[in-house]
Amino acid sequence: MSTTAERQLNQTAFRQLSGFIDQSYQRGRFVAIADGKIIADAASFVELDSALNALGQGSADVLVVQAGVQYPESAVIFI
C-alpha cells in the first residue's frame, strides 16, 4: 500500500474510532493507528515510540493521536 493510501486509511479509521478512543483511553494517552486499527497505546510519546519499535513499526509510519484531543479536519505542516 502506498504511503498516501495508508495515511488516508488511518485518518478514516481515526474519524471512525475517535469516540471509542475518547471513551476507552484516559485523556492525553497516546494511541497509534496503523492499517486502519489501533495497534498500541502509552502514557507518553516516548513510551509509545518504544512500543511501536518493539512491534517493528516507526512512529513516523503510523497515525499517532492523543485521547480526548480535538483535531482539526485538516492542517498544513511545514517541514
Architecture overview:
The chain is 41% helix and 19% strand. By secondary structure, it is an alpha+beta fold. It has a three-stranded antiparallel sheet. Strand 1 and strand 2 (37-42) form a beta hairpin. The two termini are 24 Å apart.
Record keyword descriptors for this entry.
single chain; 79 residues; alpha+beta; three-stranded antiparallel sheet
Shape: globular
Number of DSSP E strands:
3
Radius of gyration: 12 Å
| Number of alpha- plus pi-helical segments | 2
Content-based structural category: alpha+beta
Spatial arrangement of strands, main beta sheet: 2-1-3
Mean pLDDT: 91
Succession of helices and strands: HEEHE
Span of the ends, CA to CA: 24 Å
The proportion of residues in beta strands is: 15-25%
Sheet with most strands: 3 strands, antiparallel
List low-confidence stretches.
Answer: none
Question: Helicity range of the residues?
Answer: 40-55%
Give the helices and strands, then pairings.
Layout: H1 3-24, E1 30-34, E2 37-42, H2 45-54, E3 63-66
Antiparallel strand pairs: 1-2, 1-3
Short description:
The chain has 79 residues and is α+β, with helices and mostly antiparallel strands.
